[in-house]
Amino acid sequence: MSKKVRVALYWMASCGGCEEAQVDAITDELSVIDYLDIVFWPVAMDFKKEDVEKLPDQSIDVALINGGVRLSEHVEMAKLLRRKSKIVIAYGSCSSWGGIPGLANLYQKEEILSRVYSEVPTVAEEGRRPQRKYVTEEGVELELPEFLPMLLPLNAVIEVDYYIPGCPPSPETTLKALKTLLSGETPPRGSVLGASSRALCEECPLNKTKPDKVLVKEIKRVYNAKIDPEKCLLIQGIPCLGPVTRGGCEALCPRVAMPCIGCYGPLDRHIDYGGKALSFIASIIDARSEDEIKKIIDTGIPDPAGLVYKFTLPASRFRMNLRKWGGSR
Amino acid sequence: MSGMRMSEVIIDPITRLEGHGKIVVVLDENKNCVKAYLQIPELRGFEKFLEGRVAEDAAVITPRICGVCPTAHHMASTKTLDDLFHVDPPVAAKKIRELVYNIFMLEDHALHVYVLGGPDLIVGPTAPKEERNILGVLKKVGDVGIKILTLRRRFRKLNEKIMGKVIHPLFGRPGGISKPLTPEIIKELRELADPGIELAILTHKFFKNIIETNKEVSKLITSEAYRAETYYMGLVDDKNRVNFYDGKIRIVDPRGREFAKFDVHNYLDYITEHIEPWTYIKFPYLKKIGWRGFVDGEESGVLCVAPLARLNVSDSMPTPRAQEAFEEMYEFFGEKPVHYTLATHWARVIEMIYAAERIKELAEDPDIESTEVLNIPTERPGPVGIGVVEAPRGVLIHHYESDEKGVLTKANLLVATQFNAARINISIDRAARAFIRGGEIKEGFLNMVEMAFRAYDPCFACGTHAVPGGLRLVLEFYNERGEFLYRKDLGSINASSCDL
Description:
The complex is a heterodimer of chains A (329) and B (500). In chain A, the strands form three sheets. Chain A has a five-stranded parallel β-sheet with strand order 2-1-3-5-9, with helices on both faces. Chain A has a two-stranded antiparallel ribbon with strand order 4-8. Chain A has a two-stranded antiparallel ribbon with strand order 6-7. Chain A has helices spanning 17-28, 49-54, 72-84, 93-97, 109-119, 171-182, 252-255, 273-284, 290-300, 304-308, and strands at 5-11, 36-40, 60-66, 69-71, 85-91, 133-135, 141-143, 147-152, 162-164. With 329 residues, chain A is of the alpha/beta class. By secondary structure, chain B is α+β, with helices and mostly antiparallel strands. In chain B, the strands form six sheets. Chain B has a five-stranded antiparallel β-sheet with strand order 3-2-1-17-18, with helices on one face. In chain B, strands 8-7-6-11 form a four-stranded mixed β-sheet. In chain B, a hairpin with an 8-residue loop joins strand 1 (7-13) and strand 2 (22-27). The radius of gyration of chain B is 22 Å and the shape is globular. Classes of the chains: A alpha/beta (329), B alpha+beta (500).
């Protein structure tokens, strides 16, 4: 490395877990910081939007953006960072495909606002809502950013060069990705950095108990399943998404006898994660008749959308409103 | 308003950009502050999109509300699922849950004391800004700081082994936990128990030493500017002692009299939420007292949660060394409840001692060695499950409804930062009125706002944790016609919010 890499870090509709993960990664390997020149990190450092606006276009080497696009101001900021940066990276599941807050796309904006501000049993005032513009009793107009009709992944509003997956990406994933960038390598646009190119099963300690062909007569839900922590969850009838999910996290969830829920997202060759996951699950069901299949699915998967699109709904072909297909039918 | 010419000042913590929390200050014609608004422009809609999900998924979905305290949401959710699926976990599972929960509380509090809010007091409130951060703390306390941070990471890694992940855990299942502890984990837990206590005690010593020797700090901590006489709420055990994992919710009035003590299942009888049109955050308040605006006092339903509130509602601490520290604190202030917001820091350190002592008790308990850690639900799920824990930042309530298949039909969530939101608004309004006069922003305003904020540690969903610095505050002045006049840069604070 001859010169430092100029980095911008930004968050949108996120929980802060990605920031925690970045801090963990940096503290795990402090030497990385010597190679980074952080020009913008609103969460932790003294820079503001205007500072970024003043920068010449393309003057940031890498922008790492986490969180989904939920509010009007996220769109503006994403566009600004795109203009100023040579490379834009979607960091984490929310930014890559929408993540868990992307499940909001199963509902209309109005339904969400209505639930939060009118229907929950603790709400006292009928009909009161936050307003985009509100004039106070003193005559001052207060403004709030717009809650967009749906949550979008970053690549729906700007071009994204690379992706770092995970909810959150593990410190190892983050460091590997950073090292790739620091090495001056230029992987093809759209590449996933820092994670494995193979399915999660390959790094799962339970994989040795998994037969070549899995077939089950029953799909079980986690709440009432008796799970043997030493055995592959799939062969126990638990819909673990390891076979269709990118590795890189070291199979943290199966290690505590819980299924992979897909936070590292799809493998390279898969376009629609949920579609692939669902067809995989269908392939392990050992049933002869349609009725039998229906029964197995009704019992084991009452919420298919929540199972297979937990992290990727806004990036799916459906984008939003799969409600008829979801559990609230 | 008639005849009054108003202008506004916007303080935008420019970092959760542009507007994950901004303060608008309203000036009258003499440019004196007449009102301040803290806006939280952030919403994701968890209370809606939980609908339709299988109930057990709530335990992995709700931690994503906050990546800083995901363990609190995971635990509240898991307990709510016990209730929804009508299953009581085995003793071992309850103890292991409480054990990891106390580890989480200890490491999270340590983070706040050494990295986030504590630097104000440890390094000193008037120390240069560049020093009021973790680096300044390390300089001040020396090797102990490094030791604490290293220990914190060991505890976090241990919790990762037990909970699957430390950011967004998943080991909780209705009826228990997913996997028994291995002998190696138990061994490590027992090894870490004493160092945990030692460091909590050391932290307390440092803290007390500062209060005793630094007049500036002791004056500040009892300053009227940081005083708000509100109701307090927290979880207590059957002897009215602090408990983070379980118990009854107790509320005391501003004079310390018990106002209510109830099982979380009855929370709707006591708590309701106020909505303001200028912010996305909702303001919970006491139903029986009512909403009187952003004011304190017995007539106002505004309440407060978090470490100071927990101690204020408790008669004592359950462990001996925490009890000693508890008595000292109340003796120092000479009142109970203590109404000084900055005493929250002191309460937090006392809670670290309790968490560490409780970790030792539970780590040494032979019950945690049991492999019986799960009772699988057998009854028909629903229709209602309600659960509560004390998040580091205060009472956290989850409330789910489901159909017979255990698919969620409704969800309601009340998070700690929401409970404190009204009181934080009061503090900021007070600071603004006191310090913005004649169009001048008096020296110290930023400190006021910053410290009032930080004391609550309002779940700043952020990575400021290990990094010096914070959010930048910029004041923008507008004239009566809403035209921009000029901007004043005030420097940084740590701010954001635990929105839903």
